[in-house]
Amino acid sequence: MKKGPYVEGILGIMFLLTSLIMGYKYVGGYFVNFIDYPSLILLCFLLLISLYAGNQLRYFAQAIKNAFIKSSKEISKSDIKRMEYSIDYAIKVLMFGGMFFAVIYLFTFFQNLPASADYEIVLINVAIAFLSVFWSLFFSLFLVQIKG
Questions:
Q1: Is 97 exposed, middle or buried (0-12, 13-18, 19+ CB in 10 A)?
Q2: How does pLDDT run across 117-126, given as a tens digit for each residue?
Q3: Tell me, what DSSP letter sits at residue 115?
Q4: Number of domains forming the structure of the chain
């Protein structure tokens, strides 16, 4: 019995998540430390707005749908190229968005930094700033699996 590309894609995503969780567990942290709702919401909002503004939202949604749901109709080569382009576009938006939000957070933090701040407070806030970069990398890895 031949496996479909959808089973392989879902298995690839599961292996990706498992490897990230296992790698994280061996580092010795807690998963709660990686959850930063403002950066997640900002990245998702930026992605949706950028896809809509770049006229890529329809092809992006179609690519996500085709990655998980088997379609009965044939997909043209031009639609496949448009879906690949929309995934590449989304990856670039996520990468630049994560870096942008990290820099903006660091600027605002250092601007409002009190003179008597402890170095632990500075390091914690720098770590929070880089959570948006972490999430942009995570979502980009997910999208690379979908593109494949």
A1: buried
A2: 777 777 877 8
A3: T
A4: 1
